[in-house]
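Can't paste images in this forum, so I'm doing it all in text. The chain is below; anyone willing to post the predicted structure tokens underneath?
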Amino acid sequence: MQQEPILPQSINDDPPFSVTHELQNLFRLIVQALQRWKLWGSFMIVGMVLGVVYSFIKPVTYEAKTVFVVEESKSVGGGSLMSALAGQFGVDIGNLSGASGILAGDNVLQLLKSEQLIRKTLLSWYDSAANVTLADEYARLYGFQQKWGSKISKPVSFAVLRKGSSRLEDSLLKKMIEKHIQKELAVAKPDKKMGFFEMNVKMRGEVISVLFSQRLLKSATDFYIETKTKRLLTNVHRLQVKADSLLYMLNRKTYSAADANRLLLDINPAYANPEVSAEISSRDKVLQGTIYAEILKNLEISKTSLIQETPTVQLVDEPVYPLKNNTWLWWEGLLFGAIAGAVVGMGLGVVLSRK
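Text version of the structure:
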């Protein structure tokens, strides 16, 4: 019988894929890696030592977490003046129209990241008796004071910036803000549909974390409220000055009218001048009283509008001592180092087993 020729197998044909075969290969590699126990055991010991050392030398940072709500009314319908007029009668146009100003507080998030407000906060006193600012304390905690002092051969104090400008301190403070502080400050809005805002400050000092968080939030909210209400507040002050001036003139005119009326009791019927003087005084009094009443009404409307347009910032959560920190206990460093060393050692063993 004639045998059929055997055709050579194409070099492009791959062997069929088998899950069992792949698992067997993986198991074989793991067994071979475990057999190199001296290798991964050495890596585990080294990792344990490094983990314990790192747990002692790792810088400790403290987290100051603040949650707050910003709510402001929006001018709807006929504007803030109409809202103020309606508010005097107990009617809230904003609620009737369903308007809400909660989302408008997003501007506060941008203010919290402002370099100018951060700078202002850092230049506030940490210890006024020792002439130490928050920036000085921050530089001390991070070792910048010693580093800068060795380079420029003189101590650096940011307290001088409270009195004026200094090129050296200005440049160092700017660099410190850009490279460090802005990375340690996180502001966010956890839920886009709600008006809650969250600010986290992580620094190496517990006290400075709380002070920086509180003062930065106060600076941002004060600036925001002042900007939102500046026009209305100016109008209230202007009307208040007019009202005070008119009240003073009205009081003087009231005394003048009373004196003129008293003279009428002793007048000579042949002369009409006292009667004319009394009539003029009475007329001026009524006129000034009418003007004063209108100014007073506009003043009250402006005050009501100012109250309605002033945003409200309410703290929900604020930092409380002791702060949450990232301290590692020695056994945590030991455990983490052991796991990391074992993984690296076994991975190296698998690589060597493939060769």
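The longest helix spans residues 206-263. The CA atoms of residues 72 and 104 lie 7 Å apart.
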